[in-house]
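User: I'm putting together notes for a lab meeting next week and I want to include a structural view of one of the chains we've been expressing. I don't have a solved structure, so I'd like a prediction I can at least talk through. The sequence is below, exactly as it appears in our construct file.
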Amino acid sequence: MAVPRGILRVDALQNLLTDFYASPVAVDHWEQIEPWAVARVRLRRDTAAVPRSVVVKWIPDGQREALTASWRLRTELAALQFLEDDLGIGLSPRVIAADTALRFLVLEDLAPRVPLDQLLRRDGAAAHGDRLAAFARARGALSAATAGRAETYYARRAALGPVDTAADRTGRLAPLWEGAIEQASVLGVPLDGRAAHELSAVMGELASPGPFLALSNGDAEANNLLLHATGPADARVIDFEFAGYAHALTDAACLYVPGPAWLTVGDPTTTGLAEEYRRTLARGIPEAQDDRRFGYGLAAACVSWALVRLHRFALLDTRAPGDHSRLQLIATLEATAHTAENYRSLPRLTTWIRRLALVLRRRWPDVDQDLADSARFPPYQARH
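Assistant: Thanks for the context. Below is the predicted structure for the 384-residue chain, given as C-alpha cells.
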C-alpha cells in the first residue's frame, strides 16, 4: 500500500474510523489526488455501514505554512459541519470524522462526480450547458441558504480557534488592490478623481454587504464544483479552506469574468446563467431582485477581481510575447467593464478600466486580439 509522503500515520486514521463506526476499519489503498494533500482511500470493512472509500485531506509534515494550513483546516471543518449539521442543505461533502490535533479530515467520497472544469476542458462549454447551469444554481443556492446565519457559523468556527470576521468580509486578496493601483500608475493610467471615489464606494459595498452577506467557500471556480458527467448533475461545492462570510456577489463574479483557469467565460446574460444564478439567490436574498442593488454589488465584485488580476502586471510584462496570461488580463478587464456597463454601475471606474485595457493592448500587440470572436475564443477556453 503506497501512502503519500508526509501523510498522517495510517494507524491514526484507522483508529479514528474504527471508533466512529464502532467496527474494525482498515486502509486498503491510497490514491492521491495531485497536486493537493488530498487522497481517495479505499477501506476494508466488516459492515456495510462503513463506506467503501473516503476522501482524506491533511497537512503535510514540514509544510512551511503549517500554522496557516492548520487555520484553513479548522475553517473547512467548521464550514462543512455548519452546512450539514446546522442547515442540512446537501451542497457539500459530509464530514465523517476529523482530528484537528493530527491535522486531517475524513470526508464523504463524492465519486463518481468529477470537477466541472475537467468536463469543460475536455468537451467545451457548448457540450455542458446544463452543467454550467447547475454551477450557477449551486453558487446562488449556497448564498441563499446561508444568508442571515453568520452568527451560527462563527460560533462553530470560534470553537475551533480565533477567526477574523472582518478579514473574511474584505477577502484575503483585497490587500492586492493597492499594488494594482500602483501598477496602473506605472502604465500611465492613474486612478484619481471620481474613479477613485467610486473605488472607495466599492470597498464600502464589499465590506458592508447588508442583506447580501453570505457564506462563500472562498474560491468560486469550476474546479471546485463536482457533478456527474452524465445524467442529473447533482452538484456539490468543495474546498472550504478559505470559507467565510462575505458579499454574496463575489461568488457570482466567476460567471462574468475569467477566473485563473480561463481566457473567456462568455456572457451569462445571453446564455441564461445569469438568470439561473439570480433566481436561485433571490430565494434567500430577496434584494437580489432589485436591479440597482444587484447590479451595483455585482459590478463591485467584478472590479475587485479585476484589480486582483491587475496586480500581476509587472510579472506578466516580463513574459514572452503571446503568453496567454497577458490575454487573460485584458479579457478580465474588458469583461469587468462590460458587466458594469450592462448594469449601469460605476461609470468612472469603467472608463478607467477600459483605458487600462487599451493601454495593455498597445503595450502587448501580440495579444491585441478580438476577444468577441466566439469562433476563436469560445466560452471557457482554457488558459495555457
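A couple of points you could mention at the meeting. The chain has a mean pLDDT of 93. The beta strands are 25-32, 38-45, 53-58, 95-99, 104-108, 114-115, 213-216, 225-227, 236-237, 244-247.

User: Perfect, that's what I needed.
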